[in-house]
Amino acid sequence: MSYQLIGNNIIKLNTITSTNNYAAKLVSQTKIPFGTVIMADFQSKGKGQRDSSWISQKSQNLLLSFIVDSSFLHSKSIFYLSKITALVIREFIYEILQTDTLIKWPNDILVGNKKIAGILIENQWKNNYISSSIVGMGINVNQIIFPDKINAISLKEISGKNYDLRLLLDLLNDIYNRWITFLKKQKMKLIDDEYHQNLLNFNKWAIYSTKESQFKAKLKEVNQLGLLILKLENGKEKSYNLKEIIQVI
Ligand code: BTN
Fold first, then answer.
1. How far does residue 234's CA lie from ligand 1's centre (Å)?
2. Mean pLDDT across the chain, nearest whole number?
């Protein structure tokens, strides 16, 4: 695999099970260059976080997987790839809509409390280090009808406009390349500051739910491992991984 410029190589597919699975196969079976983007019109088995599925109407939305060289990151810092990816989508949406766009831990992108995009990153390991990452993104663009139980929104629902998916991808790639450079230059403080500044309920009281209980807490930090650090009402701090907790409000 060679040096990466995100978007230098774009593979456009009609129907596929999942762009993430397709990308993982390319990585394991070919010498696909880093920075390659897989783009599909439709996924028959789109995957979401926490073992959920990602359902998207044909040709309406961005369904993307980026093959990223993340080997320069220590495996303990790999969540920084998630952080910059969330910041990339946030900036992308803000640039199009000029409206408040927030990150909800671990990695949903929200406009007005509704989900406009989601991220699913899958890492490839060699021995004990990460050799590459598949960064999957689903961004709601032109779809205007969503199932009731999904609290989703799209660019079109907000602006009333239709978007050319291929042109949007160019904008997204430009923003991604800038953030990858920050990551390569180890600008962790800048990334952390921007991430927390744009994080839903950062430093505010909100309701969280675990298997055992629902409680009020203040979000203090998302640390380098991607753990959520909450300050509880008794003043103690506690950390949670994404399988242990959800943010209710
Ligand atoms: C989530 O919020 O649950 C993550 C959603 C990620 C969906 C994208 S769509 C393109 C890529 N391929 C997949 O199968 N999933 C990701």
1. 37
2. 95
